[in-house]
Amino acid sequence: MDNIIVIGIAGGTGSGKTTITRAITEHFGGDVTVIYHDNYYKAHHDLSYEERAKLNYDHPNAFDTEIMVRDLGALRRGEEIRSPLYDYTIHDRSENTLTIRPTKIIVVEGIMIFAAPELRELMDIRIFVDADADVRILRRIMRDVKERGRTLESVIDQYLTTVKPMHEAFVEPSKRYADVIIPEGGENRVALEMLIGRMEAHLRHAAE
Q: Which of 3-7, 9-13, 120-124, 139-143 is least confident?
């Protein structure tokens, strides 16, 4: 469908991607569809919980990006998809799926979405949400301990062994593919208002 616009929102863990995405969905309501790269983590049903907990979830190979490319292409054509769902509490893909219907604005969110050429080429606007490393780790600790049942020690260990080095190797370099960089994440109201203004203009044009 020619009137569909795809917006990629990338950035490091805890940078404020979800805050930006939430603000967009609250503003536009039913005109926005969100698809999360995190839901495309590869399934590891053959491994134990302890083995799954030790995997590197911050490398591009941790994702079934090919499936996401296929699904995003279907959404762009105006087709409904059934997205996988990831369960953070068990470090594995859920048996359930999520039905996603295309809308005029499709938001793609994830830390690695700009690292895959075949994925970023499907995006019309690429946004990189930036934040200082100390802010990001504190946000990750708060989220993983409160929402995902992790221990403080496990979050810190994962950050130091995989999250930080993978951010430096893959996420930070992918910033160069962004059309717009938003510093201070969701706290940057000026950037958010400009982004929303661009999306409103698209909707007006699509309605003509």
A: 139-143
CB atoms within 10 A of CB 118: 12
Q: Return the structure tokens found at 33.
A: 């569809």
Set out the domains of the chain in order of their start, with CATH numbers: 5-207 (3.40.50.300)
Neighbours of 125 (CB within 10 A): 18
Residue 208 in this model has a pLDDT that exceeds 80 = no
Which DSSP string corresponds to the chain?
A: -TT-EEEEEE-STTSSHHHHHHHHHHHHGGGEEEEEGGGGBPP-TTS-HHHHHTS-TTSGGGB-HHHHHHHHHHHHTT--EEEEEEETTTTEEEEEEEEE---SEEEEE-SSTTT-HHHHTT-SEEEEEE--HHHHHHHHHHHHHHHS---HHHHHHHIIIIIHHHIIIIITGGGGG-SEEEETGGG-HHHHHHHHHHHHHHHHHHH-
Distances (CA, A) of 32 to 22, 28, 103, 114, 117: 10, 6, 6, 20, 24
- Token pair for 91: 């470090």
One-letter identity of residue 178:
A
Check pLDDT > 60 for residue 116: yes
Of the candidates 96, 81, 109, 137, which has an alpha carbon nearest to the alpha carbon of residue 21?
A: 109
- Answer yes or no: are the C-beta atoms of 93 and 49 closer than 8 Å: no
The tokens describing 182, both together, are 């938003």
